[in-house]
Each structure stands twice: as C-alpha cells, then as structure tokens.
Amino acid sequence: MGIETQLRVAQLVDKGWTLAAIADELGVTPLTVELWKASKRHPTNAKSVVPTLDKISEKKRIQKEVLY
User: d(Cα 36, Cα 7) in Å, to the nearest integer?
Assistant: First the structure.
C-alpha cells in the first residue's frame, strides 16, 4: 500500500495541491505527507488513507498557500 500512497500524493501535487493542503485534509503534518511522497515512510493505516486521497482528488478547492 505504500507505493499507492506515494502515487496518490504525487498525483495530487501534479493537480496543484500543496503538501500542506493534503496534510490538512488528512489531519496529519505536512512533513508526514512529504515522507509518504518521498517513500521514506508509509502510513500504518494505508487502507483508509488511499481511499481518502482518492476522495481529495475529486474535490474542487482553492489551495492553501504553502505555510511550511
């Protein structure tokens, strides 16, 4: 599931999402999302994170400015 998380995060970034905005949607820190994207760490609850990332990709949302 780790590679799926990495791919989903990369897809969101390609769509214009910031790591901070993704983190905000998931309730985690931007550093956590950055580590997932770099495949340096994988979520322990990937079975719930991957579907949530899919739902995020369907949202039309004004992105937050990068704060971190």
Answer: 9
